[in-house]
Amino acid sequence: MDFDFDPTTLELRERLTTFMETHVYPAERIFEEQLDSSPDSWNPPPIIEDLKEEARRQGLWNLFLPGESGAGLTNLQYAPLCEILGRSPHIAPLATNCAAPDTGNMEVLHMFGTPEQKKEWLDPLLDGSIRSAFAMTEPAVASSDATNVETSIVRDADHYVINGRKWYISGAMDPNARLLIVMGKSDPDADRHRQQSMIIVPRETPGVDIRRGMKVFGYDHRDHGGHAEIVFTDARVPAENMISREGDGFAIAQARLGPGRIHHCMRLIGIAERSLELMVTRASGREAFGKPLADQGVVRDWIAESRVRIEQIRLLTLKAAWLMDTVGNKGAHTEIQAIKIAAPATVEWILDKAVQIHGAGGVSQDFPVAAWFAQVRTLRLADGPDEVHKNALARNEIRKVRSHAGA
Amino acid sequence: MDFDFDPTTLELRERLTTFMETHVYPAERIFEEQLDSSPDSWNPPPIIEDLKEEARRQGLWNLFLPGESGAGLTNLQYAPLCEILGRSPHIAPLATNCAAPDTGNMEVLHMFGTPEQKKEWLDPLLDGSIRSAFAMTEPAVASSDATNVETSIVRDADHYVINGRKWYISGAMDPNARLLIVMGKSDPDADRHRQQSMIIVPRETPGVDIRRGMKVFGYDHRDHGGHAEIVFTDARVPAENMISREGDGFAIAQARLGPGRIHHCMRLIGIAERSLELMVTRASGREAFGKPLADQGVVRDWIAESRVRIEQIRLLTLKAAWLMDTVGNKGAHTEIQAIKIAAPATVEWILDKAVQIHGAGGVSQDFPVAAWFAQVRTLRLADGPDEVHKNALARNEIRKVRSHAGA
Amino acid sequence: MDFDFDPTTLELRERLTTFMETHVYPAERIFEEQLDSSPDSWNPPPIIEDLKEEARRQGLWNLFLPGESGAGLTNLQYAPLCEILGRSPHIAPLATNCAAPDTGNMEVLHMFGTPEQKKEWLDPLLDGSIRSAFAMTEPAVASSDATNVETSIVRDADHYVINGRKWYISGAMDPNARLLIVMGKSDPDADRHRQQSMIIVPRETPGVDIRRGMKVFGYDHRDHGGHAEIVFTDARVPAENMISREGDGFAIAQARLGPGRIHHCMRLIGIAERSLELMVTRASGREAFGKPLADQGVVRDWIAESRVRIEQIRLLTLKAAWLMDTVGNKGAHTEIQAIKIAAPATVEWILDKAVQIHGAGGVSQDFPVAAWFAQVRTLRLADGPDEVHKNALARNEIRKVRSHAGA
Amino acid sequence: MDFDFDPTTLELRERLTTFMETHVYPAERIFEEQLDSSPDSWNPPPIIEDLKEEARRQGLWNLFLPGESGAGLTNLQYAPLCEILGRSPHIAPLATNCAAPDTGNMEVLHMFGTPEQKKEWLDPLLDGSIRSAFAMTEPAVASSDATNVETSIVRDADHYVINGRKWYISGAMDPNARLLIVMGKSDPDADRHRQQSMIIVPRETPGVDIRRGMKVFGYDHRDHGGHAEIVFTDARVPAENMISREGDGFAIAQARLGPGRIHHCMRLIGIAERSLELMVTRASGREAFGKPLADQGVVRDWIAESRVRIEQIRLLTLKAAWLMDTVGNKGAHTEIQAIKIAAPATVEWILDKAVQIHGAGGVSQDFPVAAWFAQVRTLRLADGPDEVHKNALARNEIRKVRSHAGA
């Protein structure tokens, strides 16, 4: 057992930290100003393109992607880098082409795409010249169970025809999100986990109606493509847009999930670290009743608890990443579930305190903590509410004890 | 001891409930549509004027105001009505002319205004033809201590000249908010609680720059006048705009505070009751893993806890109201502090569960729970963060025990 | 609505407070010394008899019992007195003949006893010359559901024969507990709520084996009769010992329950008030890192939260008492459930803080807070764990919303 | 970074697990019976000696001690073994000569003892033939700050004379605890951290009055030597009993502390794992309202949360152990503080749920969970209350941010 990062990770952490300090943090104010100055645009602020160029130049690009197409890092190596990106969560992931949902989509295309699909869609995604969306969640059913999707994908000669309603399709409001990877039911009569397929639907396809941006506590998130409600009405795409084979949808979703959750959690830890810094900075600079907030007992309690909790979720996330690398996503199942449960709740708690310490400023647009709170809050719901994951984790735990007792 | 409402209250509760069911709830969808259709307006949606007319016609008007100018109710009588208004918090208070900050401002003018001030400002406020704002909070200092205000109010012959910066001035973005009651320092050398004054500043006064709407978790709250940042630069108003006398500002603020907090808390309880209903309705109608959410243990736990907690904060708020009526705001001090501490935290907890049960819909614009969460969250900060009130309450508690021990 | 106590209550509160200050608090040390000096005795320390004499003399006796046999108070009148008794929970209830389980047993005999039963058992109980126990909980089944009891009560000519195992039968280790009221199954084939009976079993009955004292976190509670495990093996009692009629057991249990829970909760509030005083006193007298604990932010937070929470559970308990008086136990069902859920958890929280502030002393025998913690902890289990009550309360809440929606 | 145990650890874990299953768990019932049958004895039950012999024979002995005198393991190697011992916390540590406070005392003598001291005291301790106590905590001062001790150690020719009062001196009630290591003040005028000394006081020394066993929530813990109150009145020991030199007391205490806390935390994790098993087992075997507790949502929530939290504190503890091995106790300071804060609170939470699931049995002597709860609860106080550690940790955190900002 060894808690040191390997040399590759150490070197990349240093370079990435420099990039953050030299380019990303200074860009934050500009990013906000550009956003404010074009209130009706769903494109990311133009400064993002400058940062992408710089990141690409420095080789801080596609860090998330294993293999030759990407930076070739393991999950354990990427995790601490992803944390650093999370410190400026609206900018750094975009700037380094490491932003969801593109990361997951690139992984899917990388693992399951045909050479033609890769050429048409993966290459420009890797290149950062287009974006993408992943259309799974539906308003009418509990999204926690992928087998619930009701959108239909029906073969019609050499095409597939798609009908259904999706919402909270992140990134899809960005006009540059050229493709949607749509999860739907292709065979309602197949086995429960073989009914679903995933298919590539180009944005311009007739019958694809991107209706409106869903909000998150009042935020439209147009800085990273928003969250679209999309209605598919007889949307027709060539049969070769199918990813892998009919019926593989559930398996692909599972494969996409593990790394996705790890990334979310690592970014959360970055948010938490930055929030703790903001908390301490504000508490140090603000007086109330004759002494700095940072000298007041309750504030110190929050600061200490934040540190104690951050250390715990970071280690748990790193261990999950290590398990994914060593025994695979399946072997890491419990740990992945555990961080999915622990990290959002923990970081939400920290952000609540960060808001409180900032006073009215804490809920405002002048500090990032309210926006981060809202974002983190959604992760207790996204990809299944906590309660579903706890129930599943408990079932396993019970099974383990019983089988041991029976042995 | 008797927990029954008196006949006046019972009768008004019934009439108000009918008004809610007949006019307010059905107006909610229209209200949202009108809001959406005029995205750049800071005026409340036009349906509000229809509702005001109806409420005035039914005598459900100015219920908050004791004495002949208003409905003449005690705090204890108004409290349960205010709770009912809180069930549709963005509409019902406006519709019945019982919305903050106008209520507090009307109370101030009613208690401390000159006949001229009353004629010019109170009458149209009572009438519902104009609105108002209360400018106290400043970005640069801890707003929890009213003696901290830095805005200056300086006598210059028969005028006062105002300089300073305020923010989160609720309602002030509404162009119909014709007057601002501004709290500032008129004599920095006076005793600590005699340095402040309150003065009426008409919106149009040169030197009043209403800069921007502050946000609350992404919401601009333009449906009820937003929260303005206002800069006063040599804003000059006639000396007769002073409310009461120079140096009375702190005392007026205190007088305004007690009822204001009670109203906030009662509205919160209305929000909580409605949220619990939404929670139960959603849980009853939504299945996951083969049974309705409402049959799942964790959800039931939340529902039960919500009920148990609501009952407690309601009783505490009613008792505080009763104390204000019987022994005055000062005698009710501890209880007012206690509900200020307990109610927002409790209702926030309930709303968190309501969000969770609604899934992605819970954070969206399609259900009110995320917006209510954000609103309630601010009340852990507004008018002093919880921690300040807890500290003060504890100090009292310690003093009580010590003096008893010393006796 | 009126939060004032009536004159009878006010007068009794004053007299009872004087009795506490003059007799009970000074007796606490003696009580402990007497306990320590007879480590193997299950009798209460002798000072209790002195206190009983004094209480009887002052008319502070059987305050819990409505009607002519007792003090004739309503639940609402008794509640604040019971709170005062709770301030010295191991002494004051015994001293005033207001201790569980005797109170509930006297109520049962008072309501359902035959003249002979009253003469033989109720009179000496009212008199304070004997004690009693209530044998319901069984180790083998979930005690939260009274219909689960497995102990059998079988008619055999003019006797009943009892077989079964009970545990946590409070008070039964005291040799002066002359009678046990035993709940058992008399007719397993009857309707679910008509299978149970309650019967009086004199302590000396052959076949009654009082096996051992069950502990509560290491405490044997021999100061108030412990908690016995009792095995009944063909214990035979005359048929006239049946309380009311065969099959009435469940109904009697329900009738006994409401007041019992109120009493527990009021006592808890007394414990909480006293604990808060101890907390403040200790925090005022103890320095750490250069200033009194009472000046430290986290400690103040605990003190304030304690006050805020106590006020809430007190009001809820009083309202439940008022409802019992005005609309009956059934009408007060939700409120009784609510305090059963809220009060133990709240007071446990307060006691945890009281322990913490006392340092090592907090877990020791030198301060009462650890013992109170243990006692309060059991009330989250006794008479059904919280979770059962929450589940039932939620079911009601769901039914209410649905029926309203359907109306 | 690598989360695998090394081969030595893996092999020892296997052997230790076998020892637990073959000898320790089966001994638990006998241990309890022997305890019950000698209610006045402060000696551990005789079965402990049998187990010690077996453990010694198997080489599962002094695992905690680095270097040649012990098993020679690093902290990181010992941690997971210590966790296993914690699964039977009243037996396994004693059985393997790895019980506090002997472990810490052996470390002190090992590091700082003279050859004579080692021969007289360390050898029989290593051998398991005697036990020891560590006398630091005093009733009169906050024990969280070692510089507070008031007990005096005064040189008188070739002796030292000790006066003072200590309490909660764990293990000292065991007559076989032949020596006390006493912390006291030898020079009140020296620098703050040079005033203290540690000295060996043989149990038989005249003037050593072992007064009484302090309790922990009603438990006397006589199975592992209780917690003594000890009064020293002119207790006189030879000057060569001084450990290291006069004034080294504080430094020795610090050196003793790091490993001690790690051991406590690892044992806690063992307790938590066993409690979770007990919880699951009970929940699987007990029905309520028609289905096993293990199928009820709230119970599952507890089980899942328990697992998620255990994983986090384990990783944090292992990391702290690794830091101690690699950068020393000082470098591991924050992490040691963090587990000291996190582990007791977490495991207390788990035990609360374990108690609840066991119903009345949960607070009884028939299941271990109440006793463990009490024991764990003390660790939020022992060696400084949580609040002190949080305050210190926060101060560091604030310093870090400030120095970074200033850089």
Automatic annotation (TrEMBL), chains A, B, C, D:
Top-level taxon of origin: Bacteria
Record protein name field: Acyl-CoA dehydrogenase
Domain Acyl-CoA dehydrogenase/oxidase C-terminal: 247-396
Cellular component terms (Gene Ontology): cytoplasm
Location of the Acyl-CoA dehydrogenase/oxidase N-terminal domain: 9-128
Listed GO biological process terms: fatty acid beta-oxidation using acyl-CoA dehydrogenase
Assembly information from the UniProt record: Homodimer.
Domain Acyl-CoA oxidase/dehydrogenase middle: 133-234
